[in-house]
Design a protein that fits this description.
The chain is an alpha/beta fold. The protein is built from 16 helices and 15 strands. It has a 7-stranded mixed β-sheet, sandwiched between helices. The longest helix is centred in the first third of the chain and has 18 residues. The structure holds pyridoxal-5'-phosphate. Pyridoxal-5'-phosphate (PLP) binds next to helix 5.
Length: 440
């Protein structure tokens, strides 16, 4: 064990979303990464089954990206983003809007998924106010939604553990029902058949609050962090129709689904539904430098641009918005995605991947398997009285055997880098199957 991982040297770091004391008794420390693999501090090879944290879509340590960051650091380390700019901020925005669904052609930069969500919510509120509909202040999220950890995001989010400690959060927020329906949809391959009608829950909230008070609805096209919930067939289309009917903005949180995860550059394209605002982060820079972005429709941008030209239109932004290193990393990332056709590779592999993850159906304690593109969710029956523990034990076992998976509650989530090969999918699934047997 190296000096930096001895228990005495680990006290100061308060780790995020981690059982700190348990972790520090048996730390998992990564020291290098290349392609599909990490190396840990014992020089063991760890196959990355989750693209780091749903972000390293092109695999690790990619040369274009590394070089772009190195060169940028030596050329322009920082440029203030308020009333100033640098060339790569423009270049990146132009390249990004070539990939987004038609109409989403304006880009606002942030530094993380959570910041993208806050930005999108504020954009929606300000948009209505500028249009003279300032009564539209209500934000609607969805049960089991995850939209990061800042106050707006946890307010519209629907994960109780992320909310219950933090008071009353934003006022005027409500939630539509989640789309998970194990009774009718368990073991669906791809989009489940039942549940388009759950979008009608938005009509219930419109009837309760009146559309004139509702600014926006935010959903993840595929809910990742609450256990890989795939949208039922027709659900997102219906949500779009109801939003249009009532003048409510539809925000897609594509922080996990963006950049090729579902088989198209964005889930909006996979499912054929275009939101008014779309948030991204993670795969935007392949996880190398923190960066997020919010895409907005031209009409939203135009609304902001309706006042006097010398005034700031949107009082919002971050010291590190459009950071030169992040822009360089994103440009290197887009180049890598393009050269290797990675943004559609999941659509080629999804049949093989679906068969592999659904082969776990008969493994002990598996109560559901869900998939889309290169995302898989394997839900386990909880240990009696100890929710999440069985899945976490499986995670520890797989790590011990050299495969990194992720768990949320009692669901195991798989989201390998988009460069994954078939044998590596087999290796992930075989390792998981053996761990599930041991956890029985
Ligand atoms: C859908 C979604 N929104 C927001 C976030 C928050 O992103 P970040 O951790 O970069 O703030 C995440 C992170 O997993 C996410 O999955």
């Amino acid at each position: 064990m190296s000096q930096s991982t001895t228990p005495g040297a680990m006290d100061a770091y308060w780790m995020p979303f981690t059982a700190n004391r348990q972790f520090k008794k048996a730390p998992r420390v990564l020291t290098r990464a290349e392609g599909m693999y990490f190396r840990d501090d014992k020089n063991r090879q760890i196959l990355d089954g989750v693209a780091g944290l749903w972000c390293v879509n092109a695999g690790h340590n990619r040369s274009h990206i590394v070089r772009a960051i190195q060169e940028q650091a030596a050329e322009l380390d920082y440029a203030p983003p308020f009333q100033m700019a640098h060339p790569k901020a423009f270049e990146l925005a132009e390249k990004l809007v070539e990939l987004t669904p038609a109409g989403l052609n304006k880009v606002f930069y942030t530094n993380s998924g959570s910041e993208s969500v806050e930005t999108a919510l504020k954009m929606a509120l300000a948009y209505h106010r500028i249009r003279g509909e300032g009564s539209r202040t209500r934000l609607i999220g969805r049960e089991r939604g995850y939209h990061g950890v800042n106050f707006g995001g946890i307010s519209v989010g629907g994960m109780v553990a992320n909310r219950k400690m933090f008071g009353t959060m934003l006022s005027g927020v409500d939630h539509i029902r989640h789309t998970h329906d194990a009774a009718r949809n368990a073991f669906s391959v791809g989009q489940p058949a039942h549940g388009a009608d759950l979008a009608e829950d938005l009509e219930r909230l419109v009837a309760l609050h009146d559309a004139s008070t509702i600014a926006a609805v935010i959903v993840e096209p595929v809910a990742g962090s609450t256990g890989v919930l795939i949208p039922p067939q027709g659900y997102l289309q219906r949500l779009r129709e109801i939003c249009d009917k009532h003048g409510i903005l539809l925000i897609f949180d594509e922080i996990i689904t963006g950049f090729g995860r579902t088989g198209q550059p964005f889930a909006a394209q996979t499912f054929g539904v275009t939101p008014d605002i779309m948030t991204v982060a993670k795969g935007l820079t392949n996880g190398c430098v923190p960066m997020g972005a919010v895409f907005a429709k031209q009409s939203i941008y135009d609304t902001f641009m309706s006042g006097p030209e010398h005034l700031i239109e949107f009082f919002h932004g971050y010291t590190y918005s459009a950071h030169p290193l992040a822009c360089a990393a994103a440009l290197g990332t887009l180049q890598t995605y393009a050269e290797e056709n990675l943004l559609t590779r999941a659509s080629e592999l999804q049949g093989y991947f679906a068969e592999a993850v659904h082969s776990l159906r008969d493994a002990p304690n598996v109560i559901d398997v869900r998939n889309i593109g290169l995302v898989g969710g394997i839900e386990l029956a909880p240990l009696p009285g100890e929710p999440a523990k069985r899945a976490f034990n499986v995670f520890l076992d797989c790590y011990d055997k050299g495969v990194l998976i992720r768990t949320t509650g009692d669901t195991i989530a798989l989201s390998p880098p988009l460069i994954v090969e078939r044998e590596q999918i087999d290796h992930i699934v075989d390792t998981l199957r053996a761990a599930l047997k041991r956890a029985a």
